[in-house]
Amino acid sequence: MKILFVIGLILATICYSECVMTEKQMEAAKKLIRNVCQPKFKVADERIEAMHKGDWTPDKPIMCYNWCVLNMYKLISKDNQFNYDLAVTTLKAQAPLKLQETALKSIENCKDAVKTTTDKCAAGFEVTKCIFMDDPEHYFLP
Question: What ranges do the domains of the chain cover?
Fold first, then answer.
């Protein structure tokens, strides 16, 4: 019985250390999502960079870009609600350890950020803006 426990513990440790993304892998995933969402909504690089520096002026392309980002991660539902439980599960399973604590705090603080459920782009923008405003230094979305 002890041997099964030890084997289980070893496998859990291996999976935990192997399943969590490195920072380099996380950046590659963010780049992939940006490369899908950016052209889809015709958002200029400068507009995304400005957003990452704090300019969250709402316009339809950037709002829809943010919805697309959340949708790619499966973090926004068809009824335009933030999927908080999946966000927590995904962060714990895949985000680099360095990012997890701050990211989990931000999504906790923003789990009820959606106010506009009738517009998917507005809903996505409300969540991503909230996450940024909660902790701009550690914003983790593309």
Answer: 21-134
CATH 1.10.238.20 fits 21-134, yes or no: yes
| pTM: predicted TM-score of the whole model, two decimal places | 0.83
Supply 87's token pair.
Answer: 């966000």
Residue type, 69: V
Q: Which residues contact 5 (CB under 8 A, 6 or more apart)?
A: none
Contact indicator for 26, 96 with CB cutoff of 8 Å: yes
Cβ-based neighbours of 7, under 8 Å, separated by 6 or more: none
Question: Of 56, 20, 37, 72, which Cα lies nearest the Cα of 139?
Answer: 56
Q: Are 71 and 127 in contact (CB under 8 A)?
A: no
Cα 46 to chain center, whole Å?
A: 21
pLDDT tens digits, residue range 6-20? 343 344 444 444 568
Residue 82 phi/psi, 5-degree rounding, is: -70, 130
Q: Residue 77 is inside which H or E element, if any?
A: none
CA–CA separation, 104 vs 3, rounded Å?
A: 35
> 135: which 2 tokens?
């902790």
